[in-house]
């Protein structure tokens, strides 16, 4: 065989491989509609650097009031509390950088998609359980040992068994480059079978699971107060046809009503026994095109924040909505404190972030989010009355905007960045991470679900993993938002960070040399405090974030299960 013929055969094989990959992606991740570009607002100036005198000045600020209707645990709902801050006062681990020993990691296989593990209150015998909903069904784990106490299997639990998962993990351990995209597709494609991503655990011990079809199911112990008893369905709510549509997120009011939005613009409140409900259509849902732009790209894309005064904060494709819960229903009336405000949305697809509350009591009080510009901006909006002397910011759509800060990741000088995560809020600090994969082949789409493919199963690959973590901080004296710090060497490929105000650290699952790690950065300076090397692709967090438990230990979801880190010297 001649050299020319050999080269032609190799090139032909590469073309067939690329075409095959493209066809596979189109089948498993069909492209959505291209969003119509929104209004192109003037370019913004970068946020000024935080003066050194203000570094750590928000120590001692109030946290969100505890919601008494939620289970009394560290993580009874996504993002930890009704304010959606992803922060706690509990001290997290402090250590030297090192590799964790096998005996310092508790791991339990549960099948694909165990993104959240929701904590119960304390049982009569002193134990807690973790409720975990994944593709393979609903699990109840002992929070200390991770023993499976009960399992309500789905119809996929036999298909995605441990042998199947280990085969995929071994393949990705061997090669998690773009040349193993077919295996990566198998790993992330299982999430399409996940019915209920969002769950809430109430003080009654029930876990509420929101399903794709808009229904809400409540599960609990067969024998109340018995952690070892099997899981049974307690009640079910089916959304009326007028508001039917995929649910997006879930929260709970401070008087115990479960609230969630639908992709097409309805807000639903359901009593804790699932017998009574209220529904309201959000402003502009009857005027704008509320059709989905693709999986996860509805008119409402993310979960909601709730305050203790009845405020419910929802982000639609162009607006932030404050709807007020009165105790007897919803109000969109300004007299009750409701409002609607436009945010910047140059790209047209809307914000990818769950909004989070900032400031409580006598603090300046905001709703924080990232907007829909191609280069997203951290956005703060006054969540109550706008101060009388407040002047509209340059480039802001309305006076309600209190702060606008382009996210460039400092010296990385990004020209394009969008996030699919909540913003992390603690005190007056707001943290965002870069989730844009690097070196995506030219023949691949650059947005949407394909990004998830690269930062998910392939996210630890040094040629692909994104870098950059940036913190902004509001100063109530100057009433300005500053860039507090940027760490361009830190990498949080696909998960939501978690802040400990007790140890003044922000923790996230990162990657180094193609292994997954726990990273700890100083919350005030952004400097690395330490990191743990956890291990290979078995420990990929795949869109889950770390949480700190009652004992100050990190637990998080992996591709196929849950992991609890129990370092021997944590906190010493």
Protein described:
With 572 residues, the chain is mainly β. The protein has one domain: YVTN repeat-like/Quinoprotein amine dehydrogenase (Methylamine Dehydrogenase, Chain H, 7 Propeller), CATH 2.130.10. 10% of the residues lie in helices and 29% in strands. The chain is built from four helices and 35 strands. It has helices spanning 3-28, 162-174, 181-189, 449-455, and strands at 87-88, 98-99, 105-109, 117-119, 129-134, 137-142, 148-153, 199-201, 207-210, 216-221, 231-237, 251-252, 258-261, 266-270, 277-281, 305-306, 311-315, 319-325, 330-331, 339-342, 356-358, 366-370, 377-382, 401-406, 424-426, 429-433, 469-475, 480-487, 498-500, 505-512, 515-522, 528-535, 547-548, 554-557, 561-565. The protein has a six-stranded mixed sheet, with no helix packed on it. Strands 16, 17, 18, 19 and 20 form a five-stranded antiparallel sheet that branches. A four-stranded antiparallel sheet has the order 3-35-34-33, with no helix packed on it. A hairpin with a 4-residue loop joins strand 29 and strand 30. Helix 1 (3-28) runs parallel beside helix 3 (181-189) and helix 2 packs antiparallel against helix 3 (181-189). The longest helix has 26 residues, at 3-28.
